[in-house]
Request: fold
Amino acid sequence: MTKAATGTGQCFCAYRIRVLIVEGGPATKLSRMSIYMPLNKASFTLDTSGVMGFFGGEEALSAMSTVHLYQGRRWLGWYNSPGSYTVAKKFGQLAKSRFWDGIFPGPNPTPEEMFGLDGLNGPRFIGVFSGTDMTTTGHFAYLTAQMANEAQMTKETKELIPPGGRKTSSCSLSIIDVDKNEKQGGKVPRMKVYHALCAVIPIASSLAACLACAFVRDWLGFGLIVLGMASSGLSCFVIGSGKLHFQFSEPSLYAPRGDGLLLMRNDIVILRGAEKDVTSITKAKFVLDMGSDEEFNTVGVCSLLLLSQFLIQLLLVPRATLFGQIMFLSSLAVSWGYNSFLSSLEKEKIQTDLLWKSLDEPHITKLVLPNRGSQAAYTCFVLHADVDMSKKSSANFKPKKILEYMIPNDTRVWEAWREHVARQVLSKETTKSFKPDKELIGDLEEEEQQLLREMLDDAEYGYKCYKKLSGSYDSTP
Reply:
């Protein structure tokens, strides 16, 4: 080539195009072209190890949400935990300012809602003496209903239930006496630290990974694991520093008894006790006091630290040695296993256990009846046992209205049935009669009369069950 051609070729040196000339041919052919891009020869390569911050987020969130339920749990977060990005984006929403809302957009829930300590609606509650009608109750009523649903009939109860009863759809009935407990004020009795002590395993694993990296002089891998331990530990300590306590309502000292019903689709929970004791289930709630910082700036700083940890690890983990990357991923794997273990412990079950401890673990009497009529009649007789008939205020107990709440069917037969059952509940006779009189069935057609007799037999079976079981849960009004 000539010097001119060489000069021309130098003008295209930025592209570094190499042209091979095929000998023996009249023309040249472009057989291969290669373009050298920036960082083409750099040893820096991105791999998937840094993306581990995305994984394990749900488990990390679930584990963090129990930090207030265990004694000493806030001191045990010093391990390299996965899911830092998810945790940061979630808990960062607690911080309330324009600055934090820009970094962590979304609604600003209360601490109780954020940690699953509030927000669940309980079933409808009917106060049989106070006249209270709560369409929805609070978080504690929901937990109580779940506790009653999981309770089982005892062997003694099964033996006492008389045979018979028309079987349609099984209906459970749970009776809880809450007026014999000694509540621990507003203090929440936290769970023992045993489960939380398993955190020693991921802490030791992360520490061992750090020492291994230091031993081979992989200081980048060492620093990244220490960063994960520090950010996780500080966040767990700050978030876990909140004080959890109960918030009870204070009814009047002259309020009537608080006996009432939690009404569900096929199940009923009877709460018996003073008004202040029953409202500790229907109206009380958990309160998480995060300190005087109403904007939760410290939580925002910790969330920002977790987010920075994720970004730093994402960019720098590939720069560590292969051994350092293996140690980093190993520490994450062990931490993920521990978070999964904490996630397997049902949060609602833990909260229910804490509530029951605060109520001095009231006994639950559970039985299953074969139909709604037996269930409703049984319920009325149980509640009537707490009525002091010597007082004029006994007129506040209206069994017919209670029956309407439980069975609201608006037909002539059901109306006659409620009328007769309510009359027997209030009757002072020791022997109850469930045979319809002429006045009751005089206006009913033949088919309606037969149906009414069948339904009254259901009510009679419920009364027989009550008589058999009443000794196991009698209370003094």
Notes: Residues 85 and 307 are 5 Å apart (CA to CA). The chain is about 45% helix and 10% strand.
